[in-house]
Specification:
Layout: E1 2-6, H1 10-18, E2 24-26, H2 29-35, H3 39-49, E3 54-57, H4 63-74, E4 80-85, H5 88-99, E5 103-109, H6 112-120, E6 125-128, H7 130-135, H8 140-154, E7 159-162, H9 168-177, E8 181-184, H10 186-191, H11 196-212
Parallel strand pairs: 1-2, 1-8, 2-3, 3-4, 4-5, 5-6, 6-7, 7-8
Helix pairs in contact: 1-3, 4-5, 6-8, 8-9
């Protein structure tokens, strides 16, 4: 399973990338706003840092405008993935951009039916949102499982990219189900290393080592 980091924060991306924890990056208009950066500038910088796919989202709601914006974003670097919404116009833009050889991430997916349409339109990635479904009392993980089964049934090549990841458990469940990719905020990815028993064990080891009076090396 590939790890994408869901942020436009260069420092956070660099830290995880240096540890080999970043296979790609996803951004959206909200993350661009949070970064305080120009979308073209920060997208190019991310692409220079991370060799994997970097999703940059269009902001128009009409297909022709999405295609125009998508081409502009794709021209920034060969690893740009144009992100379009799962609307009828977004699907039109997906098909047109895919036909021209661009990677496309279809985002804001909330049903299996939408995921089927995205695959038929040639999407490189489909981004179902787990956390936002959980927020309204539905089961986001059930959607991930349904899409996995449907894509496997028919050999769709679209990558299942689980998004709106809120917890370590979301990541583990996605791994069990077989999501191709997860995208999560840096804090959630880093939280995967945490466990109270690890902390407790390290505290005990440190205390016992101090009692030996020994040192390793100079």
């Amino acid at each position: 399973m590939r790890f994408f980091v869901d942020t436009a924060d260069i420092a956070a991306i660099r830290e995880l990338h240096e540890l080999g924890m970043v296979d790609g990056v996803t951004t959206n208009p909200s993350l661009i706003l949070k970064s305080g950066r120009d979308i073209l500038e920060v997208t190019k910088e991310i692409c220079d840092l991370v060799p994997g796919p970097v999703s940059a989202e269009v902001v128009s709601d009409k297909a022709d405008d999405m295609i125009r914006e998508g081409k502009h974003l794709a021209a920034l670097a060969p690893n740009v993935t144009v992100k379009v919404p799962l609307t009828w116009d977004g699907l039109k833009a997906c098909k047109a951009l895919t036909d021209e050889g661009h990677m496309v991430n279809v985002t804001l997916c909330f049903t299996s039916a939408q995921a089927i349409l995205a695959a038929k339109a040639g999407a490189t990635f489909i981004s179902p949102f787990i956390g936002r479904l959980d927020d309204i009392g539905l089961d986001g993980m059930e959607l991930i499982a349904d899409i996995r089964q449907i894509y496997d049934n028919y050999g769709f090549e679209t990558n299942l990219l689980a998004a709106s990841i809120r917890s370590v458990n979301h990541i583990i469940e996605c791994a069990r189900i077989g999501a191709d990719v997860i995208t999560a905020p840096p804090a959630v990815i880093k939280a995967m290393a945490n466990h109270v028993l690890t902390d407790k064990g390290l505290e005990q080891f440190t205390a016992d080592w101090a009692k030996t009076g020994q040192k390793i090396g100079v």
